[in-house]
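sorry for the late reply, my laptop died twice this morning and i had to redo everyting from scratch. anyway the thing you sent over, i finally got around to it. pasting the sequence first so we're on the same page, its 225 residues, then the predicted structure underneath. double check i copied it right bc i was rushing
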Amino acid sequence: MDTHTFAQVGFGHAHDVDLEDTFDFLNTDDTENGFPLDHLPTLDAALTWFVDRGVIHKEGADRTRVAAARDDAASTRDLSRIRAVRSALREVSLSLAAHRAPSPGALDTINRALHARQVIELVPGPDGVHVDHRHVGDPIDDALARLADPLVTELTSGHPERIKACASETCDWIFYDSSRTSRRRWCDMATCGNRAKAARHRARERTAAPGPDGDATADAVERLV
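ok and here's the structure:
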């Protein structure tokens, strides 16, 4: 009997998700100029994001859209489910960055998402045995489980201490610190890092400027260095 296995389970199925994809998902819950900005404001936007990242097939997303168009309550529930898992994954990531325990509710939400993933199984074929899958939940369940997987893998066999939150006061992106010293503080040196450096430089210049008595405030300068 021949046994056939495939690196990709089922032809045309979504690709594997890596940790950067997971963080990109978490960072759709964004901040702009100090105000919250959700890059997934609607279920349609979330489904488009999932399709673009390969975690949902277009056919599955279209079926979900059709069902949502028939039932406003279901559409609201689906979007709430996506945001709840995103929030839970953010909470776990932030807890790792802050070296604290995550909320039990976040762990429960992620565990429910993980349990709803597609199940891999062996099925008979005309020329032997094939690897196939069956869905426990709907396409959204599969997508959320796929997006949770890389964080779980990093916790079990990676370097979770390198998961960090941007130190900028106007940004709360989650990122992976791949620097040699693991002392990176900013999600992106070209944006948040440079803005922070520029702000410190301006503050030092203001503090170092001569005051009414003609002298700089040395103690204040020292605090900013």
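The beta strands are 29-32, 35-38, 119-125, 128-134, 163-165, 174-176.
thats about all i looked at so far, will dig more tmrw
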